[in-house]
């Protein structure tokens, strides 16, 4: 039992922890601060159409390499908060961060604000609307816009394990999307799979921004497809 003189300090400390929404993550380690302290959207990302075109022009054009050595585990076995990627080290699971950013009409947990209890996804790939409810089967999945397999072929095969883990958990690389569309997209590049035409501009902006940030090569058909999609952006 704490000495009487220390009780006010103990109460104040407990109150401060409760106010920040801190909670334990992997191995009982506390998070690094309030959930809201880490932004879920990077300033200036995705790039504008002009920036995306300029970035695309600078990318190395080459055919994919080392496709036969790709394994999902090369990018980490599970979601990880232990990276310096956007959204990292905020005490929340990466998938929860994506849901908190991409869902509307959202209700979060009272004791654990990382957890999304319910919400609605307006799927960018198909235009469909999907309700979400915690612990219930959902039509929502988390997609790497430039798929892990595509990133591997574009240069990630030469990265360190930590950089691959960072890529896999970078919120700017991820979107909450329709499950069937995610299955159909799989690890296809932009020349082999495209979302609905109304989303071409935004998709190409994000896709090119990811390739530029991580200096991933593009194949000739992939570059041409991205140029075509960026051409649909408003002038």
Automatic annotation (TrEMBL):
| Molecular function in Gene Ontology | endonuclease activity
Q: Which InterPro entries match?
A: GmrSD_C
The answer to whether keyword ATP-binding applies is no
Q: Which UniProt keywords apply?
A: Endonuclease, Hydrolase, Nuclease, Signal
Tagged with keyword Ion transport: no
Locate the GmrSD restriction endonucleases C-terminal domain: which residues?
93-227
Segment forming the signal sequence? 1-24
Q: Which PANTHER family match?
A: AMP-DEPENDENT SYNTHETASE_LIGASE DOMAIN-CONTAINING PROTEIN-RELATED (PTHR24094:SF15), SECRETED PROTEIN (PTHR24094)
State the name under which the record lists this protein: HNH endonuclease
Where does this protein come from, organism-wise?
A: Streptomyces beijiangensis
């Amino acid at each position: 039992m704490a000495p009487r003189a220390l009780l006010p300090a103990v109460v104040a400390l407990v109150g401060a922890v409760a106010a920040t929404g801190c909670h334990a993550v992997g191995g009982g380690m506390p998070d690094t601060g309030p959930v809201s302290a880490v932004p879920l959207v990077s300033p200036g990302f995705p790039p504008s159409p002009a920036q995306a075109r300029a970035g695309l022009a600078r990318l190395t054009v080459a055919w994919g390499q080392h496709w036969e050595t790709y394994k999902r585990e090369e990018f980490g076995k599970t979601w990880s908060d232990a990276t310096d990627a956007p959204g990292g080290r905020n005490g929340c699971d990466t998938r929860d961060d994506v849901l908190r950013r991409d869902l509307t009409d959202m209700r979060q947990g009272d004791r654990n604000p990382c957890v999304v209890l319910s919400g609605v996804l307006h799927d960018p790939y198909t235009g469909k609307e999907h309700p979400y409810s915690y612990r219930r089967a959902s039509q929502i999945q988390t997609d790497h816009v430039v798929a892990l397999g595509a990133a591997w072929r574009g240069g990630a095969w030469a990265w360190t394990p930590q950089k691959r883990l960072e890529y896999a958990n970078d919120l700017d690389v991820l979107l909450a999307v329709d499950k069937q569309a995610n299955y159909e997209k799989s690890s296809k590049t932009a020349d082999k799979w495209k979302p609905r035409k109304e989303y071409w501009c935004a998709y190409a902006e994000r896709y090119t921004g990811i390739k530029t940030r991580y200096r991933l090569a593009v194949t000739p058909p992939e570059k041409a497809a991205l140029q075509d999609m960026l051409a649909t952006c408003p002038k």
